[in-house]
Amino acid sequence: MTNPFRAHIRQSLANEALQIALDANAERRVHGRIAAFASLPDWKDRRNQAHAIRADVIEHLDRYLETFIFNARNNGITVHRAKDAAEAINIFTNIIRARHDAPVLIAKSKSMVSEELDLNRALESKGIRVVETDLGEYIVQLRGEKPAHIITPAVHLRRQEVGQLFHEKLSEPYTEDIPTLVNAARRVLREVFLTADIGVSGVNFGIADTGGICIVTNEGNGRMVTTLPPVHIALMGMERLVRNFDDLAIMLSLLPRSATGQKLSVYTQIIHQPLDGQQRHILLLDNGRTRLRSSPLKESLYCIRCGSCLNACPVFREIGGHAYVGKNGALSPYSGPIGSVISAGLFGSNFIPLAQASSLCGACKDACPVDIDLPKLLTRVRAGQSPLSTSPSSPHGLSTLSTIFLRIYGRVATHPKLFAISQRFAALGTRLVSPFSAMVRLPAFTGWGYSKDLPRFASKPFRAQFHRREVKTARKLEKIIRKTVESIPETPISNSRTEQFITELTAVGGHLTRTSANELTEKVIELLKSRDVNHIHLEPNVLDENALQQAGITVSHASNPATRVGVTKALCGVADTGSVLEADGEGGKIHASLLPELHIAVLHKSDILPSLIDALPLTRQKKSTVVITGPSRTGDIEMSLTIGVHGPSEVHVFLVDDSNSQ
Amino acid sequence: MVDIFHRLGIAVDFVPDQTCCGQPNFNAGLRTEARAIAQHTIRVFEKTTGDIVMPSGSCAHMIKHNYPELFADDPAWLARAQDLGKRVFEFTEYLVDYLGIIDVGAQWNGTLTYHPSCHISRGMHIDRQPRALLANVRGARIVDLPHAEECCGFGGIFSIEHPELSAEWLKRKVSNLEMSGAPTLVVAEAGCLMHLAGGLHRQKKQQRVIHIAEVLANRGGKQ
């Protein structure tokens, strides 16, 4: 019987380009994560807190869901619940049909839940065009593939393959230059954002207390699909809740660090209501989660889908996300250690053998930001404890030979005499096979013999050597109190909040100009002149419009895709991440920080808050908010950092010192 | 290990009825068999007193961490398993944390490097203990093993179920060993020991792998 999973493993190992790509992913991501956590001295406490938060949410999921749905509906969001993929697709179709009879274009940002539904195929079969807008997702969609990694969908590809793909599918001149490739995708997808009828996004966290949703992205496509189209549908696994803003702040301190090694992703959106004239839906999907929750794999629902267990896993590093196939050859959307745990429970016993592909080395547990005991869960899947584990033929996902061997071993190991005799026989056996060497060369089909020899068993085992000799009286030994050496990385804390803000903003590639209130407009004009800009999208009451006019700069208070510069007043700054908080409001201001290539944020020094946890409550009264941390960026091609994808390629903060008026 | 304890004046006994802790079956998912072996192990050691020291970290891990999982819904056996777990120590943990000894008077003329086995370092957070013991071996130069934290590819039945994956990691471990420059790799785990010894032999490498007890028991400075 051929095992498609093992066939995929062999294919992956033989694919040299894939091996290079996966090695690069593992090394960059693991180092990135470790470096990012060095700036969070109390990360161990936070990890414990995060575990406790998720445990509480999953324990009382029904209650929190009820609160979340109640609050979201009060906020004007339509909430749907789907038991399975079929129901979800139906709900989707109904939303679409209620508005449109004509062909529909859907712009979609990343959602792993949509992969569970096989949403694109289902909608396309109904004549609805779906375009993936995350760069990595877009690339795999053009190739007719599925994402190979939760966070980095095109992790398996190298720049040459992307260059060739864009050449064939988009008629772009062949290039291996990553910024040129990113720019090509930006151009094509900008058109999609502006004309889409419906935007579809995933959800990183729902906030039970406020009914809000949090979406974390780097490229800006998430903001586009939740802001521009007249309808936004947010797809959410029903377990992805936190209780309140405090929980959210903890999660957001761990998620980006674990996923991409960032202190905060570029765009952290907190959305509470539809925008004016917009329809917003949340679709909560069960699809086996209730089943998982009442199984011994419950802890797997704590997962926040950061992908760090994939990056840390030596198996994933060898085979990549496209090798995680079940016995029927179907690919699971979830790969890596977490995928090997949940796939069987969510999608069927076909996927049980995935759990056998682990040495239980525990690198995944160490990397998990919510401290899920993945090795333990893997052994539970192997023990046939996943909820759909009904396949009588192979409940453990083990080969027949191994099963027989272990069953016999199990018998022998409960009978000491038999065990002792077997040791002798094994020793004799290996000695007969290999009389002249201490090592036995076994054939490859045995598994062991594939890459190593077998040390000959001792002809006189330890049990035979050990004589229960007269024991000497034990000398009294002082027990020494154990000294725990816990190295806590030191982080220099900036002496002032402003200094810290500036340091962090600069670190993420943002620019800064300090100014007094009087000189603000003058300094902005200076920057605009240096860029030959004579038209801006301006939030009302932020700059002196007369002065702008005199300088020959025209101003618009509505969004226009052609406008190169947007100017807003930030609600606040966040010192420890160098972020600014922007919200919807008069004059299409949420667009002003999204569509133009240069975003100018005016920030008052007194509005700089220490940390995200202080800023989150400000999002409550707004329809849609976003914490912006630097210019938009992607690492989706070979993890090479490229600045400027869908959102602005430049963020310039004018820091207004209002403490004195010189 | 016995020699070292005798040298320290500690009485050692070996219960002949002991067999295996049941880890191979547990890890593979065969819990019925694993439970039977675990019950046998618990019964055998209940007849003894004193601390139980294991020269193979994953076995200690099995008893301390996986026995409670095995008997989660059997309160009587769970209690017995937990009582046994309290008496179980990994060898280097016992020397350093329990006895407070980091110098056992060993000598080894040569360069050594240490592979932190997964169940010892990540499973039980025991890492500074073996390193402290090695650092105090006279004559030995201890060098870092690059990417030491990576699994060697054993993983019990895994190495038989997925020989291709196991082979890749083994290859990487061996090449990291070569990179370290040390002729001798030290481990505190029987599984890794068997796996790495077999791998080094198959690849016809000069380097060898030994158990940490062998280093610590040595006084003559051989290498």
Brief overview, please?
The complex is a heterodimer of chains A (662) and B (223). Helix content of chain A is 40%, strand content 16%.
Tag the structure with descriptive keywords:
heterodimer; A: 662 residues; alpha/beta; Rossmann fold; Fumarate Reductase Iron-sulfur Protein, Chain B, domain 2; 4 domains; 8-stranded mixed beta sheet; 6-stranded parallel beta sheet; B: alpha/beta; 2 domains; 12 helices; 6 strands
Molecular structure report:
The complex is a heterodimer of chains A (662) and B (223). In chain A, helix 2 (16-37) crosses helix 12, helix 3 crosses helix 12 and helix 16 packs across helix 18. Helix content of chain A is 40%, strand content 16%. Chain A starts with a helix and ends in a 5-residue tail after the last strand. Chain A is built from 26 helices and 24 strands. In chain A, a hairpin with a 4-residue loop joins strand 5 (205-207) and strand 6. Chain A folds into 4 domains: 41-285, NagB/RpiA/CoA transferase-like (Rossmann fold), CATH 3.40.50.10420; 294-382, Orthogonal Bundle (Fumarate Reductase Iron-sulfur Protein, Chain B, domain 2); 400-459, no CATH class; 497-657, NagB/RpiA/CoA transferase-like (Rossmann fold, 3-Layer(aba) Sandwich). Chain A is elongated, with a radius of gyration of 28 Å. Chain A has 662 residues and is of the alpha/beta class. Chain B is of the alpha/beta class and 223 residues long. Chain B has 2 domains: 2-95, no CATH class; 103-217, Rossmann fold. Chain B has 12 helices and 6 strands. In chain B, the strands form 2 sheets. In chain B, strands 4-3-5-6 form a 4-stranded parallel sheet, with helices on both faces. Chain B has a two-stranded parallel ribbon with strand order 1-2. The longest helix of chain B is centred in the last third of the chain and has 18 residues, at 163-180. The model of chain B has no long low-confidence stretch (mean pLDDT 95).
